[in-house]
Amino acid sequence: MSAYSPPLEGRDPDQHLLLDFNERTLPISKAVEDALVSYIRSGRIQMYPAYGDITDKIAAYCEVPADQLMITNGSDQGIDLIIRAATDAGDEAVIPRPSFAIYAQCAKVQDLIIREPAFTREGGFPLAECLDAISERTRLICIANPNNPSGTAVSREAIISILEAAPKAAVLVDECYFEYMRETVCDLVLKYPNLFVTRTFSKTWGIPSLRLGYVISAPCNIQALLNVRGPYDVNQLAVVAVQAALENPQFMRSYVTEVMNESKALLEDFLDQQKIVYWPSAANFLWVFPRNPADWRDALFGAGILVRPKDDLKGKCGLRITLGNRQQTERLLEVIQSVV
Ligand SMILES: Cc1ncc(COP(=O)(O)O)c(C=O)c1O
């Protein structure tokens, strides 16, 4: 194994436009900032966390009963707990690739045998290959919806086929980018007790640094996962921020609308006009394959814009470009135009 070490050092929001980690590109709301400052000044930093009714509030936002939801330290922790709780060494896992690196990382820690059907630009999610890869010993299937880095959307029907074909496997549906795609399977958790949905406040809500994610699953699974999660794993400041953010979901939604309806359309139109290849995406990022990716990256870097190089399965270099607001996308396009 090797450590999962994303290139995080040296990123500076004062110097760079950060289009490399699929983060929110605008500051958090004043209300969230005020709530954090006021908590820090309240003399309670030296106390252990107390989560109050945060689970009820997040469950209400998700329109699920509170006993179907557990908060975690980012969705990464939810993913880790599900994989640890559902599998033993030597079990099989189906993890289509390329996808978010944490699934394979956690699966390797558990010593699982990993099957890796391939996403394709034309075919999208490899449903038939995933169904073929399921065996008597499959205990885990990971589906990022939409997928990272490709942005590929996975249909509800495809997820249901997998849930039905693998009743003994935990089917982890990672809805990290849910607010951008607005499709969910969390309404299916009672019908399919092998379904685990993970989500986060890291992306659209803009607080990845504070780490708050959650798992939605059948109440018996939530109880089992609570047995594994530590009592203080979630940072109190994350809870304070989310309490304040949930008071005004419109702040998050208006950003999502600008990114998805304006910025994404701008970049896609430009790429289409220039006949530059990219993967169809349901998320706030595009995986783009320019003819000269190194030139793009250098020019963007020179202009203070960071994007993330990500090779496809054949080793071809693509750039995963996060979309920001309209103004930021126009700035991005100006630089790309100069290279093209
Ligand atoms: C598909 C996917 N899942 C999960 C995560 C991690 O989210 P969190 O910050 O909630 O741990 C990411 C982050 O990039 C992601 O792309």
Low-confidence stretches: none
Order of H and E elements = EHHEHEHEHEHEHEEHHHEEHEEEH
Kindly report the average pLDDT value: 97
Q: Name the helicity range.
A: 25-40%
Total number of β-strand segments?
A: 13
CATH topology of the largest domain: Aspartate Aminotransferase, domain 2
Domain count: 2
CATH class of the largest domain: Alpha Beta
Q: What is the radius of gyration?
A: 20 Å
Give a short synopsis of this structure.
With 340 residues, this protein is of the alpha/beta class.
Describe it.
The structure is a single chain. With 340 residues, the protein is an alpha/beta fold. It has two domains: 17-27 and 249-339, Aspartate Aminotransferase, domain 1, CATH 3.90.1150; 43-246, Type I PLP-dependent aspartate aminotransferase-like (Major domain) (Aspartate Aminotransferase, domain 2, 3-Layer(aba) Sandwich), CATH 3.40.640.10. The protein is 39% helix and 16% strand. The protein has twelve helices and 13 strands. The protein has helices spanning 30-40, 54-62, 74-86, 101-109, 127-133, 156-165, 178-181, 219-228, 236-246, 249-273, 293-302, 326-339, and strands spanning 17-18, 69-72, 92-94, 113-115, 138-144, 170-174, 195-200, 213-217, 277-278, 285-289, 305-306, 308-311, 317-322. The strands form three sheets. A seven-stranded mixed β-sheet has the order 2-8-7-6-5-3-4, sandwiched between helices. The chain has a four-stranded antiparallel β-sheet with strand order 9-10-13-12, covered by helices on one side. Helix 2 crosses helix 9. The longest helix is centred in the last third of the chain and has 25 residues, at 249-273. The structure holds pyridoxal-5'-phosphate. Pyridoxal-5'-phosphate binds at residues 22, 74-76, 100, 144, 148, 174, 176, 200, 202, 208, 213.
